[in-house]
Structure prediction request, 260 residues.
Amino acid sequence: HPSSMWGYLVKVSRFGRFKNLRDFAIRYADAIGWWRRDWRSYRSATNVISVSCRLACQLNQSGVSASVVHPGTKISKETYRPVGGKGTKRLLIAALDLDEPRKGVRRLLHYLRCARVTCAFELTLVGKASSDLQSRASKLSVRVDFLGPQNREQLQVHMAQHDIFLFGSEIDDWGYVLIEAMAAGMVLVAPDASPYDEIVGEAGFTFPLRSPSGFSRALCNAFELDRIESSRISISRAVVCFSRPAFAKSLLAAHPVQEI
Prediction:
């Protein structure tokens, strides 16, 4: 969540799809309206429950009382089950719409083409994909599988059968799919932006969003991990930090029962 008016405008301008100049002006005015409404709510609240440390810090610096409580996620019972060939890493990218610009899938494909890695790998993409995006992915010199749209349970099964989850969103309110991948025992590779960096922790590696070399380093680091041990670390972090019980515990710690 951006907290400044400039942040709201940047979010709209970077990812909005405008039909004409009038539509552009309307969307900008709407963004300013949302900024004003959000801040009116922030300032009238006794305390704001923030999903990220960065947002809570920005609010506290502006005189708004805020505490951090990460959203809770239902942890899948699927566990890591390697199915690739020996020494071959299985990479996964998933989104409802793989062509959605803010998901950054095309950027990830470009980074994969540029990556200097020596480990053999395969790539699986889950979600709706245009023929153009499929054509771009097919230019990679590795096996690429498109599974199309999948429901949550199906995606969790696929996650448990892969090693590394690639995430390229430039901006998002939270990262539920990162946590579900973590809960399935995957190693995460994601941008070093909030809230993704707060989610990843020891369960993976982050990279500067617009740095192909930074992505390559993060991916190489992920390749070098002991897969069984990294799976244990990821699952443990998902349960301890982002499960529904963890959410309840954090909420009660921030706001004891007698205050509710």
Remarks:
- The first strand starts at residue 48 and ends at 50.
